[in-house]
Each structure stands twice: as C-alpha cells, then as structure tokens.
Design a protein that fits this description.
The protein contains three helices and seven strands, in the order αβββββββαα. The protein is of the alpha+beta class. It folds into two domains: about 1-40 and about 140-165; about 40-130, Umud Fragment, subunit A (Ribbon). Strands 1-2-7-3-4-5-6 form a seven-stranded antiparallel sheet, covered by helices on one side. Strand 3 and strand 4 form a beta hairpin. Helix 1 (about 1-35) packs antiparallel against helix 3 (about 140-180). It is rod-shaped.
C-alpha cells in the first residue's frame, strides 16, 4: 500500500513538473519570438495556431475562428494563407500569382492587397475550429498562465507537505511505541 502511494505521488509530481515546464517554455518561446524578431506567429515545427481577428474572410472564416497554419514550399491560387504585414498577421486568399509574387484579398474586401513575395507567407490554413477563439484567448491570457502555474505549484508543494506530514505521523507513532516498550 505504501509503495503504491509513493508511486502515485511520484507520478503526480512528474506530471506537475511537466505542466509547469510546458507553460513556462511556451510562454518564454512566444515572448522571445515576438520581442526579438517581431514574429507575431511563432511556428515551431512548421505549424502555428492563430485566432481570426477580423471579418475580412467572411463567410469562409469568421472572427474568433481558430486556424491551424502549416508552412509549405509552394502556394497556389485559392489557398488561404497567413502573412505578416508590419506587426499584424493577415489571413487572406491568394487570387493572383506571378512567379514568387502573390496578390491576396479578403473575401469580404473590395480591394486587393499589395503583392507580396511568397517568402513573407507564414503558411497555409489547413484546419479551422469555428468559434474556438474565445477559449484560446482565455488560455493565452497572462492571468490564465499564472493561474495554471499557481495551481500546479500549489499542488506540488502540497504533495511534499502531505508526505512530510505522513512521515511525521509515522515517526510520532514509532516514538510512542518505543516509550510504551520502555515502561
């Protein structure tokens, strides 16, 4: 019984340490990508996640849709792509291609975007989770991040305190037993 409890505690501690490491690692990576090179859509392993912020691609994409973006070697007419324009990410459809230059346009927009070189395209939209942006925005908020870290740290500390209390109770019981035997 004691060994099973110890194994459970060890597994819990490892899981909590992984959660803490993951939250801190993703946070540090994202902050560094944004602050060091102005990259507003980090794409580790060639994949990124973004939330649609405008209705320029209605009805195909709506505000608060979550999009999965995958980098590609080439892009074709009709591809919905993400590219960085200044400090903003733009999600528009390729409507014209001339060599390495593409022209994009939001489906709900009347005007074409300025042509861009394909090297500025972050990737192609490969999947859409409709309306999931509200949840993602909560998860990406600093308050949520600190909340997850706080709960994980509290549980980690609590597991050590519980173990220490159990060990202390066992020692106290042994001391009582020794005192009884002395009498």
């Amino acid at each position: 019984m004691k060994k099973a409890t110890q194994t459970k505690r060890t597994v819990t501690r490892i899981a909590l340490a992984l959660v803490i490491s993951l939250v801190l690692g993703v946070g540090i990576y994202t902050v560094n990508a944004k602050s060091l090179n102005g990259n507003t859509l980090p794409m580790p392993f060639g994949v990124g996640v973004a939330v649609v912020l405008s209705g320029s691609m209605e009805p195909k994409l709506s505000v608060d849709d979550v999009i999965i973006v995958r980098a590609a070697d080439n892009y074709d007419l009709g591809d919905v792509v993400v590219f960085q324009q200044g400090g903003d990410m733009v999600v528009h459809e390729i409507i014209h291609k001339d060599g390495d230059m593409v022209t994009t346009q939001g489906r709900a927009n009347n005007t074409l975007d300025d042509p861009i070189h394909v090297k500025y395209i972050k990737g192609r939209v490969v999947h859409v989770f409709e309306g999931a942006g509200a949840f993602v925005n909560i998860v990406k908020s600093p308050l949520f991040t600190f909340g997850v870290l706080g709960v994980a740290l509290w549980l980690l500390i609590r597991s050590y305190r519980t173990e220490r209390s159990a060990e202390q109770a066992e020692l106290d019981a042994l001391r009582e037993e020794i005192e009884k035997l002395k009498q």
